[in-house]
Design brief:
Structural class: mainly alpha
GO cellular component, one term: ATP-binding cassette (ABC) transporter complex
Number of domains: 1
Number of strands: 0
Membrane topology: Multi-pass membrane protein
CATH topology: MetI-like fold
GO biological process, one term: glycine betaine transport
InterPro entries: MetI-like (IPR000515), MetI-like_sf (IPR035906)
GO molecular function, one term: carnitine transmembrane transporter activity
Length: 283
Amino acid sequence: MFPENLTFSIAAWVNDGVDALVSNYGDVFRHISDTLLWVIIHLEGLLRMTPWWLMLAIVGAIAWHATRRIFSALLIVGLLFLVGAVGLWDKLMQTLALMMVATVISVLLGIPLGILAARSNRLRTVLMPLLDIMQTLPSFVYLIPVLMLFGLGKVPAIFATVIYAVPPLIRLTDLGLRQVDREVMEAINAFGANPWQQLFGVQLPLAMPSIMAGVNQTTMMALSMVVIASMIGARGLGEDVLVGIQTLNVGKGLEAGLAIVILAVVIDRITQAYGRPRHKEVP
């Protein structure tokens, strides 16, 4: 047995910090929660209101634009049609709305932080251990303070998803920018380009495959949080998986699980296709 006189606990400190955060900034978090909830509800309502055939046509057009292959676009449309055919279309739209909001927030946070990390070694030194903690810390641990700040529902599910999913985007954005050829940057400096012109005209375009790989990984990791998000009040496909577990309904859980896999495959194929460099055809 470990000696008691050598033990200590950080639980009281953490609890005091979270309590102070809730007491002092509760109104701020409530405003953020209300804003995000409004966005999610209206986006979900728009997706569910859109006719299924129109949604399939839109996704098919996006898939074709990304892959430039008719067969790939038809396959993606067919997989989504299969989800609707088993009666999970509304659940799919609920999950898609949650995923879209979480992914947009992750992109808005991840890419700027990755750019800053690529430009500052000090920030990178501080940021990387934090990203390691975010990726390895069990999600149920940070669900506790998130629930205290935002309560049950879709909003805490989004924040928990962002915490888990944003690190790959930050890492790959930083990596992509650092791998830009130094000779290219020296040539751009010789032409007198300012830092903004260097970033948006050269660095980001050259790092785009790596950044899109980060978006792809972030989306995949966000999808892996679907079932956990359903435990704190988020609806969607994860809810059916959870109900299947609770009621030992293998068929219901399998249908919802396969629907999540199909959504992951669709998003993965599209984001990977956009991440690949485009080569213009020479006439």
